[in-house]
Amino acid sequence: NSQPILANKSQMLGMPQFGLRDNLIKCELLKNEDAYTYIKNYSFFLGTYNVNGQNPKESLSPWLASTATPPDFYLVGFQELDLSKEAFLFNDTPKEPEWMLAVYKGLHPDAKYALVKLVRLVGIMLLFYVKAEHAAHISEMEAETVGTGVMGRMGNKGAVAIRFQFHNSDICVVNSHLAAHTEEFERRNQDFKDICRRIQFRQDDLTLPPLAIMKHNVVLWLGDLNYRISDLEVDHVKDLIAKKDFETLYNHDQLKRQMDEEVVFVGFTEGEIDFQPTYKYDTGSDQWDTSEKCRVPAWCDRILWRGKNIKQLHYQSHMTLKTSDHKPVSSLLEIGIKVVNEESYKRTFEEIVRHIDRMENDCIPSVSLSEREFFFQDVKFMQHQAKTVSVYNDGQVPCQFEFIPKLDEPTYCKPWLTANPAKGTSVDIDLEVFVNRSTAPELNSGQQQLEDILVLHLERGKDYFISVTGNYLPSCFGSSLSTLCLLREPIQDMPLETIREYTTNHRSAFTEEMRMKIVFDFWHTIVKLLTISVLQEELFQQPGLRGEFEEIRDCLDTGSLDTLPGSNHSVAEALLLFLDALPDPVIPFSFYPQCLDCCSDSSRCRQIISVLPQCHKNVFNYLIAFLQELLKHSAHNRLDVSILGRLTIHIHCLFLCTLSADLESAGQFQTQRFILHKTHSVLSEDEQNGK
């Protein structure tokens, strides 16, 4: 139909005349995009500032209005906006509007700007402003956040991100705050990879799969990346800075080394650094850190980009701002944006429609699969495995496939299996197997096996069947306490029939000796923590390394317990994951109503503990003893009752009223009643969801 077209591609593609051929035409339009678009340059101001929990005390104009002409876009990121425990617990802070107002007042005075989006996770905030005349050309705006703290859930570290379409270019902007400390560069690498993997943007067309960060034409990444200067003493670093020998200093920069080795930020570019490190200063001055720790200066605050037609006009720090122990950084980028020529688009569109009409009249869809049977060997708890099936279009017309549910089944696959993408055109499909806390219990007990049949349906064509099987190695993670108490050998040495019998008939199988037995895997992990880590700072607050957790899991599951591997943080996180994966928590679900009734009476709480199943009571008492031991050394490990109490909310494994009764001997649990009500609401929601 020869109707007037719109400059916004998403609106054009939503017109009703596309019908069932919508995805096919989209694909062809993308292939021929150069035929109906041209490049036009726009200026993007990117800024990052770690404000160390301070209030805005000075004008931000020297930073935000430092360009000769007003930029078209502002993308301004903050870290450590609020360091209070209230902000960490409730994700709410009065400092958000204060800094938002300071930014608005600091924008370039020669243009009018509109706020497009604000997104915040605890202290990580991203503001997006645009010149008013460009706002109408922005569409498909989405925002996501991801925490990379303990268990990948805490928001003191992580990222916030936005994505949008400007004219015909897809743009993604990420503001991140990665793990601290000089020696933790591998954890920073892991944070970067987790952010890239976990941030998925919903598309306006809900039939399309989510968009990952790297699926955009342009990716802009800013923030306190926390990469430090390695292998140089602090005095040598300061001497190089005084000589302005930034080239020598940059050769020792951790981010440069990791990028050179293609470990992180592959395909990204960073401009030349010709300014002194932006961290760490005494607050309110330009003087390097004079505290007892005397931090080595470092370029923690960075701005990088990925994509074509991008030119950096400046990259600099702003030394006049002294509010924080960091200095703000800015980069002005000139980015070539794809703009639609309406007449060219109309001609291209009509040619594509005529071509598809001819093909549809000639043929029906057909594909061939590279394989139809897949076997996953030795699948383990929380260890990802993937295999690829290639879908080749061997017909003469474009085709659309989709995995569909089998008869009387709600989803197209078992919960431990994912096909990515689940719909599309000719493509490589990743079949991913991942066993987590929700799927491990039935696999451990043998009630479920790694067996499934996927039905790949071809639109206007036939169905194809893909067989997925594998063998799962049982794990103490996801096994019940009662089952683990009965095991005389490592779980992976036990016959599956025996594990199934213990799971279904554990009450009758108990002997008196077993009733007094504490779960050995749990006990061994606690002992490891108790003996070597009671003085460890930030225990249960710093995440462990993925590889070390896998070693700890294998050690527990195979009985190689002479030397439990991993750092203190990795062992601590393994303990949390163990508790989180229990099918029935330490305080069983059936006891929750009683716990709610006696939340303010510690003696009644102790009565409830006394009637718990013996193995649950043993674990509870041992865990409480361990937590009390940690609190005895709070002057060294900086843990308090509030931190440990909040931690139990996140793992849903210890009911807080009973926990508080035993912790009161080591510290006053002042927030007991409030957290209790929070937990009650969580439990009520879980019951509604049938958990």
TrEMBL record:
GO cellular component annotations of the record: cytosol; early endosome membrane; phagocytic vesicle membrane
UniProt-listed InterPro entries: Endo/exonu/phosph_ase_sf (IPR036691), Ig-like_fold (IPR013783), IP5 (IPR046985), IPPc (IPR000300), OCRL-1_2_ASH (IPR048869), OCRL1/INPP5B_INPP5c (IPR037793), Rho_GTPase_activation_prot (IPR008936), RhoGAP_dom (IPR000198)
Domain of life from the UniProt record: Eukaryota
Xref: PROSITE patterns: RHOGAP
Keywords: Cytoplasmic vesicle, Endosome, Hydrolase, Lipid metabolism, Membrane
Rho-GAP domain boundaries: 494-683
Class of this enzyme: hydrolase
Cell compartments where the protein resides: Cytoplasmic vesicle, Phagosome membrane; Early endosome membrane
Annotated GO biological process: phosphatidylinositol dephosphorylation; signal transduction
Signal peptide segment: none
Main location: membrane
PANTHER family: INOSITOL 5-PHOSPHATASE, TYPE II INOSITOL 1,4,5-TRISPHOSPHATE 5-PHOSPHATASE
Family membership: Belongs to the inositol 1,4,5-trisphosphate 5-phosphatase type II family.
Name of this protein: phosphoinositide 5-phosphatase
Naturally occurring in which organism (per UniProt): Cyprinus carpio (Common carp)
